[in-house]
Write a structure and sequence with these properties.
Layout lengths: L2 E9 L14 E3 L24 H8 L1 H6 L7 H20 L8 H16 L12 H9 L7 H16 L19 H7 L15 E3 L19 E3 L4 E3 L23 E2 L2 H6 L10 E4 L3 E7 L8 E2 L4 E2 L19 H12 L3 E6 L12 E16 L7
Parallel strand pairs: 8-11
Antiparallel strand pairs: 1-2, 1-12, 3-4, 4-5, 6-12, 7-8, 9-10, 11-12
């Protein structure tokens, strides 16, 4: 067990109303800031049997693809992504200038993995792409890439290794007894096998009927169609719908106790600034909202009135020289200590508190960040 940091908050009594979970008392929200290293390298991850790297990376790049729809993976973009990978890998490997790694850099690493998920089997063996080298670099525990990216890279490596990295096996030379010529096939009426052309995977957006009870214009998932391709499935926001801006401190027009089936709906309504992330805010302005989902076992603690909340990527900082206070989301929480602006708290059914919603996500009111302090990781031994 090792030390890390937490942030302390207290309820904004003048703003929280109704039977929400955060009335009265203090609330603690905690970004982890530092830790002692228990090992120089992270262990190889145990991949669940049903882990689908294509589905995982599709969820990872949802927000990026909303801002940059249908990226053209031409030679220029691939060169750019390769350069970002090299730069980030060196910083992680030698633990130097890690604070200079931006969220955009990490988005591009995810975009690179997304491209790998879409490439054809025969492209795996092309030396110019060096797919094997890229995946080994991201998946190598000594490079300390974020856990989910390592997991995806290792899963692809395992899959492609079983496929011999796209290199077809050398055909065995047939003996006279087994040799079959083209002419003998023609005489026997046997047809020569034809290779099927690879299909291009294109996303198709499916819009529900307007009177659908859930996805229709009056339903809780209104204006959220499904975008689906051969490998991916994602809920997206209808282009014709004016999304509510989340960049507001306070309730932002929401009622305490408002519920959504999925986070994308809360994002649509301006409750939170990300369809997947747990912290929404900037280092300059502070934190607008957080999602309590029980992601960090042994670190997060939720008693309803008091909340200990761990910073983003806490379990990925395997080295004591990595200062997680440099994480932009952590900075937003710490900045909220100075501004005293309230933070919206949304709880999901995955949280550990007995009062968490049984399903989906719920808005539980406003909290104020007071301070951050040290805690310990019981799950992995490091932060």
């Amino acid at each position: 067990m090792v030390d890390s940091d937490f942030v302390v908050l207290s309820d904004d009594e003048s703003s929280v109303t109704g039977s929400n979970a955060g009335t009265g008392g203090e609330t603690q929200v905690g970004p982890v800031a530092s830790a002692e290293q228990t090992s120089d390298e992270q262990p190889l991850l145990q991949l669940p049997v049903d882990f689908d790297p294509r589905e995982a990376i599709a969820e990872f790049v949802e927000d990026y693809l909303l801002k940059h729809p249908s990226p053209e993976f031409d030679n220029n973009l691939l060169i750019e992504l390769d350069g970002v990978l090299r730069s980030v890998a060196v910083k992680f490997k030698f633990k130097k200038d890690i604070e200079k790694i931006t969220e955009e850099d990490m988005d591009k690493i995810s975009l690179l993995l997304y491209w790998i998920a879409l490439i054809k089997k025969e492209e795996l063996a092309q030396e110019k792409h060096n797919i094997k080298g890229k995946l080994q670099e991201i998946g190598d525990p000594s490079y300390n890439f974020p856990e989910e990216q390592r997991r995806i890279a290792q899963a692809f490596s395992k899959e492609f290794e079983a496929d011999n990295w796209g290199v077809p096996p050398e055909p065995k030379r047939p003996t006279k007894a087994t040799r079959v010529t083209t002419r003998s096939r023609e005489r026997s009426g046997e047809r020569k096998p034809i290779k099927a052309k690879a299909e291009k995977s294109e996303a198709v957006v499916r819009y529900p009927p307007k009177d659908h009870k859930i996805f229709g214009s009056e339903g809780c998932m209104h204006h959220i169609p499904i975008s689906q391709s051969k490998y991916t499935k994602a809920y997206i926001l209808d282009d014709a719908y004016a999304q509510k801006d989340f960049r507001t401190f306070g309730h932002n027009g929401l009622e305490v106790g408002t519920c959504w089936p999925l986070q994308v709906a809360a994002w649509r309504d301006g409750a939170h600034g990300s369809r997947m992330g747990g912290i929404s805010g900037t280092a300059d302005r502070g934190c607008y909202s957080i999602v309590v989902s029980g992601a960090y076992k042994g670190l997060d603690r939720d008693t309803g009135d008091i909340l200990y909340y761990t910073t983003a990527n806490a379990h990925d900082a395997a080295d004591k020289n990595i200062n997680t206070k440099e994480n932009g989301f952590t900075k937003s929480l710490i900045r909220s200590i100075e501004t005293t602006n309230p933070v919206r708290v949304l709880r999901t059914s995955k949280g550990d508190w007995a009062g968490a919603p049984r399903i989906g996500m719920r808005y539980d009111g406003l909290y104020k960040v007071l301070s951050y302090t040290a805690s310990k990781s019981e799950e992995k031994g490091h932060i």
